[in-house]
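pinned: reference chain
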Amino acid sequence: MNPILPAGAMVALGLLAGCNGESETPVDTAMLEVGERLAEGCGACHSIDSYENRVGPHLVDIIGREAASLPDYDYSPALRASGIVWDEFVLAAFIANPQSVVPDTKMVGNSLSPEEAEAIVKYLETLE
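pinned: its structure tokens
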């Protein structure tokens, strides 16, 4: 069994524990504004509004995409082997602490809180 998947799954399950089971909840405008501002920092390595890969792969339509699936980007072996499909929970956990979700991924850690990572994901979802 791949040791990366259980760690990622555990992080996702931990984030899911905070869900209230309701269907769509209204998007918090303030959260989207925070996410947009924070996503500007992601732009140093990732394109969020075009299919251009940079130091990192582009983030266009990332929700629902298999990790390491863009054919024109050189992903780390760890991310290629992860089996992850990016949903909002796993992506937020990865943004907040990439190495805890996929050890040995190319993406380095950052100083974002889980709430800030969630705001970025909510913002990215509006761009789809």
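why pinned: The chain has one domain: 28-126. Residues 40 and 48 are 9 Å apart (CA to CA).
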